[in-house]
Amino acid sequence: MISVIIPAYNEEQMILKTAQVIGELLEDEEIEYELIFVDDGSNDRTWECICSIAGDKVKGIRFSRNFGKEAAISAGLCEAKGECEVVIDCDLQHPPEKILEMYELWKQGYEVVEGVKISRGKESRGHRFASDCFYKLISSATGIDMSHASDFKLLDHKVVDVLGTFKEKDAFFLALSSWVGFRTGKVTYNVHQREAGISKWSRWALIKYAISNITSFTTLPMQIVTFLGGIMLIIAITLSGIAFYQKLVGIALGGFTTVIILICFIGSIMMVSMGIMGYYVAKIFDEVKNRPKYIIGAKTNDE
Ligand code: UDP
Ligand code: MG
Q: What is the pLDDT of residue 121?
């Protein structure tokens, strides 16, 4: 059996359509399946829509509030009973027919099948540049090329079990599912236009998401601070040498510019460094609190 995990946040317009499209597709191929919708604390009628189609093949989980897509994916994977699991967006931007290709590769023995974007759909230039930078950073942090990676993937149940043992709260599914290794296949696809509703990501939400994921995979930003500190030290030693020489030969007038520049420079680097360190400390704090990743408010199979 294949479990299809569909995170949904304010997707009332899409639930029925998505369930129908994916359901028909798998039924036509006579593949046994279950659809798991995870309602990530929607404010619209998403949950009512899920309940209206819930049954043997369609299950629903409802969060008590919005915990984010990562948490929704975790909850779905945790609930899944299939031999393999597919994660797909609710807005049909990930072409469902590609699930069949992924399934074929899985049958050939691939344990992770990645959906690789060949085109990214409509995006502004700024957005594209920022996301390119983000994927470059993440790729260098994990040592795996992720420039075309996406959340659209198939995982063998074995891989899901491994991911389930990870205790980190701030998990980044896209990178972790590549990081675990296993025999990996690829299926390419074009990102479609969203069929209804709007994207749930504001620019600010995306920036926060990028920072959070980069810092959960690499401590490079902290090392950059050390590196900058080293460079500052060299500059400081050189400037001190010059100042000392000027003092000796008696031309040590002025010099206020240097002092001001130095104070500003050092001050700003210190503040940036403290900010970066503070960010990591905050992350440690969050992990230590050991709160649950998400809280389930209801499940369709409870009723
Ligand atoms: N999503 C979610 N929780 C959130 C935001 C989004 O579960 O807090 C879901 C959303 O319902 C959709 C998927 O994540 O199924 C991708 O979101 P969206 O289409 O808004 O992102 P985009 O395609 O614009 O990157
Ligand atoms: Mg989308």
A: 66
